[in-house]
Design brief:
The protein has six helices and three strands; from the N terminus they run H-E-E-H-H-E-H-H-H. It is of the alpha+beta class.
Length: 122
């Protein structure tokens, strides 16, 4: 494998924003397309969303939001994901966290590019 190819395929995800949760710094990074699809599939498998990706209940919507947060939250020191979006235990921990609603908008921003970003990149 060429050095350039190796560098490009192993590059880190883009940091969209950094947040502070209970005095801890957390990077919110843009997930890859396969990671986004895995979050949606896990939410469908758990019954949180239907086949049209609409929440089945209010709790289902919040649990899907917890999966989104899990998919974008990274430790800035290790550059590793903090939570596993496929883990029911991690999703429940985020769902029950008092800070979920404090970071939800920034997490969604990191998870999905805005229309403006898409237009700028096309």
């Amino acid at each position: 494998m060429s050095q350039l190819k190796q560098r490009l395929t192993s590059s880190q995800r883009k940091v969209i924003t950094t947040v502070t949760i209970d005095d801890a710094t957390v990077d919110f990074r843009r997930p890859t397309h396969p990671e986004r699809l895995a979050v949606m599939e896990a939410s469908k498998a758990a019954g949180e969303v239907d086949s049209a990706e609409k929440p089945t209940t209010a709790e289902g919507g919040l649990r899907m939001l917890a999966r989104v947060i899990a998919s974008v939250a990274y430790d800035p020191e290790t550059q590793q994901r903090i939570f596993d979006p496929a883990s029911a235990e991690d999703v429940t921990a985020i769902y029950n966290a008092p800070w979920l609603e404090d970071v939800q908008d920034k997490a969604v921003q990191a998870f999905r590019p805005s229309v403006g970003e898409v237009r700028k990149n096309s």
